[in-house]
Every structure is written in structure tokens, then in C-alpha cells.
Amino acid sequence: MTAPSQGVFLSYASEDEAVAQRICAALRAAGIDVWFDRSELRGGDAWDQLIRRQVRDCALFVPIVSAHTESRAEGYFRLEWRLADQRTHLMGRGRPFIVPVCVDDTREADADVPDSFLAVQWMRLPAGESTPDFPARVQQLLAATTTRAAGGTPPTAHANEPNARRRRTAMLIALAILAAGTAAFAVTRLWPSWRSTPASDARDPAGHEPGVSIAVLPFVDLSEHHDQEYFSDGLAEDVIDHLTRAPQLKVIARTSSFYFKGKQATVGEIARSLGVSHVLEGSVRKSGAMLKITAQLVRGDNGYHVWSHSYERRLADIFRVQEEIASNVARALQASLDEPRVPSGVHTDNTDAYLLFLEGRALQRGDGVGDFAAAEEHLTRAVTLDPKFAAAWAELGVTRMSDIGWHNAEGGTDPCAGARSAIERALQLDPRLSSAHAARAMLLRNCDWDWPGAETELKRALDIDPENADAWRSYSFLAGLLGRQREALQYAQRSASGDPLNGWTNIALGWALGALGRFEDAEAQYRRALALEPQAAGRHALIANALLARREPAAALAENELESDDQFRRMNRPLILDALGRHAEADRELAVFEQKYAVRDPGTIAEFYACRNDIERALSWSERTVASHLVLLDDVPNRTACFESIKHEPRYRALLAKMHFTG
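Below the sequence we write its predicted C-alpha cells.
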């Protein structure tokens, strides 16, 4: 299939291969691109990944329904059907995608198919014999999908191969970015404090207090070549930082405010989604050393423009413009900004250094394979141009810590040293830089296993910036690891209040709820994280873990097979298969996982043997886990209960002592 995004995916049971071939021939004769190649039907990981990409990228999905599909309760075609059904949840109403074709007298009302298959009109081609109307109808549907995309409807997001690798990396290390670092996962596996306790109902995790509140949307890049997005985004982000100095204002965090970037949504819809009274939007046109910035403050309930202004300034005046915008917005909302809590070291008089900082920060949050390396390069250049640029030093430290999870998993130099020097330099220049204290907390956890020190640094970060949603989320993970589950839930709720559309907020809530034994609520949070970022790695694996915790291994296995990331999918399979009593299959899956991922994630293997009550192997792999100082796993609390069987073993207690965990 040469252009999958414009073509048709034909899904069928193996018994219907001849029928499918006739349908494929009729469509291809009409010039329609069809994915159908019998020579490729061989299975394996490469094939599995190809199938998932084709279902994800095709323009139309054509399932062949027959007595054969009805007679088979299991089959690979059913996974294809479920993947296609899952994709429909991301589409708008009226977007054609599922085109069921029935090749015999199977009745729609009785068919064992996903609900989305029943919501559309079926075509009937007995024995697969095409009629002239069939390819013509498919061509009309293909034209409709093309027209809708051309008319401005955002296409369904999908991850190409570089992005999929980057998102896998993000899922493996993002808890480190949020100061819930890799070494901390060793505690979730090795320290038996993750046990269910009775829980009282908590308030709505995304509940918002009434009052004046604001979301700052990413400013639109109106530069001639539209290549200054990193600058326009950076401007909006810095305005957010300025507005947090107004104690009367509730300011939504960047991730949630930027969630609507590129989406078709009105100001009113955005305000309702974020629970804010006002929205600030604007645009930036950068031409050489000159800037033209427009900003307007809009009421969310009625669209009334409370304030607007245009600025034509030199690039060197960017910090003054940011301050003016924030001050004018605060004044319009009858609020006032406190004195800057960050000294001048946070900014720089060197505009080239500032531009490198903005671009490096954008790359650090990007989706490309080499984004971390490119981010580090830009930030290193920034601090070379201005060695007193504290914010750039802090971001450089965060970038180096974030990259630990991927590159150091394969060995190499100690990345903690480079991160440590950058973070300490940032704090020397500016002791009141909240992001630097949060980064130091990450360092103390990941590199030093200094849990009290990490907590002190998070408290310091939140003392400086009480609205730092990332820090609250990090504190939630830390409190959970320390066995303070109710606190963990409270901190996750606090993060959700200021960052409600960040999928990691929902994951933090899910962890806390699961630790309290509320696995159904945890599953709901993971599903919300999936809805916010449908293509992000690890989301289906988290849901599968929650289902396994609810003693629903069959549902967990089905959910787990929707996971697009190979490592996360394989990580879950042995435990789920074991829970289903399919022990030989579990052993085979564990052998594959060990071959592919033992260096990167020995903890999964330790956990499996602990659940098997194989004490010697559980201890051996636990020792490898701690020795690696890199434990990469998304997890839910029920699985770590397996370590109860070895908690009194001297070797196990020695591991806890090595991790400075002796309680």
C-alpha cells in the first residue's frame, strides 16, 4: 500500500481469504489503494506493528463479516476490529471510516461486532462478488474524508516511527521529568508500603474554586515563514509565569492551556473545559530584531473583550513587553502582581541566549528522536553566551535528567554528574527559582535516593510558586512512594486544579486512587489520560494493569493488546497470562521480554518471579534492579504486593538499606 492515509484496510478472517481477494481486486480495478497482501500473512512483531500502523493510518476500514467471523470467538481480525473501533472514538460525527461488508446472510442484529460497526450502513456482497455500486460508493467515502481534512478538520493524530520511539521514551522517563524518577520505581517494587487501605470519598479531582481565573493560550505565530512557533509559545509561557505573581488570580498551567493548540474550539468552549472565567489570546510577528505582538483578554461566558493592546518593539525589549502584558491583564481583572519572586538572573540581556533557551525548551518537550540531544545543545550554547542565565541552567539540568531514562539504560557515562552541575549552578545564580528546586528534587531521588532531601526541595519549590502544578504532581508521586496515600491523592487533586488537561495529572490521580484500593476509579483516570493523548505510549498498559487489579485478567489482556508500544505491551503479558492460568505462555512471553528488555527494565522480571513465589529468582532480579539504578516501569500498587513473600529475606532488607529506605 503506497499511501495508507488515502487507502482502504481490508480486514477478514483467514477462512474468508478468497472472498477478500475478490473484493480487493474489484477495488484495485477502480484505482483504489487497498492494503491486502497474502504473502505477508506470516505474523511476528514486525507484522504486528505494520498491522497497527495500517489500521491507525488508513482512510477507510472495511471489515468482512461472515459466518466464519461469527464462529470465531478469537482471532487476529478481532484485534484489528477493536483497533478500528477505538479509532472511531477520536473522530467527529459524520466522519466516514467503518465500512462493513457482509458476504453471506449473517444478520446485523445478531452479529458479534463492535458497536461502531452497527452505527453505519452495511454493504452486502454475497461470496465477495462486487457490483459496480460498491467501488463507486467506496470512492465517494474516500472523497468525503479528503474533503473534510482539506476543509480544516484536524486529522486524527497518529505517531510515526520517530514519534512512537520518543513517546515510549517519554512514558518511561516522564515520571523522572515530574520528579517521580526511575529509582523511585524500585521502591514501588521492593518496599511493601503499597497496600490498599479504606478510602473516604475525595472531592472532584478537577474541581475549581470560584473566582477570577485565567488561561493563557499559545500565541499564534504570524511570522513570514511561520518558523517562530517556539518563540510565540515561549512568550505565552512567560506571560503565564508573570501572572502567577497575582495571588488573586488562578492561572491554568501551560500544558492544559496549550492543549487546545491546533484544535477547533471557541473561547467559550476552552473556558468551560478549563474552568476559567477569562482567556488571554494573542499573536506574534517576528521580523529580524523587530516584534509586533497583539494580546486580548476575553471573558469566557460571553466573549466580551475586556482588554486588548498591540505592541511594536525591538526584540531586546521582550521581557518588558511580557511584564506589561501581565500587568495590564492583572489590572483589567482588578488584581495586582507581587514583586517579581525571581531576580534578574532568571532572564538575560543577551537576546541570542534567550532565543536559544526558548528553542531548547521547546525541543525538550518535543516528539522527535533527537530532541533531547538538540535541546541540550541549544541550552549549552545559551549558558555559554550568558553564564549567568539561571533559567537556562535549570532547563539544561532538567534535560539531562530527562535523558537518563533512555540513554543510560544502555550504559555509558554517569548522566547525574552533568545534571547536578547544571542544577547547582542555577541555584547559585537564583536560589528562588522554583523550577531549579523541583529539578534538584528529581536529582536527589533519581541519583541519590535521598527521599527526605527530595521532599524538602519540593516543599521549597511550592513555597516559591504555590501554583506549580508539575511540582504538586511530583509531590503526589513522592508521597505515594513514602506510603502516605491520602496525601498523594490530595496533591494530585491540587495539580489537577491548575492543570486539568494534562494526562500525567490523571495518571497521578490513578496511582493515588489505586494505592487506596479504588481500582475502578484509577481505571477511569487512566482512560481519561488516554482520551487526552490517544497516541501516547503506555496508556492502554496502565488501563490493563487496573483491570488486572480488579481481577479481570481476560479484559486486561484484551486491553493490553491495544497498547502500541512493544515494551509496555510485553511487560504486562507474562503477569496477565499467569493470572489466566496460561503458565506456559507466560513463561514464553517472559523469555522474550528478558531477551529484549532485561537491561532496560529488570524490575518487571523481578516482579513476575515474586508473584510466582520464586524467591531466589525474585531476589536475584531485584538485586539487578537496584544495581542498575534505573528502574523503568509504569505500575499500579496491586502488583507490588507480590513482594510480601520476600520482605523478611536478609538480601531484600539489604537492598532497602542500600536505597536508604530502612523504615
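The two ends are 59 Å apart (CA to CA).
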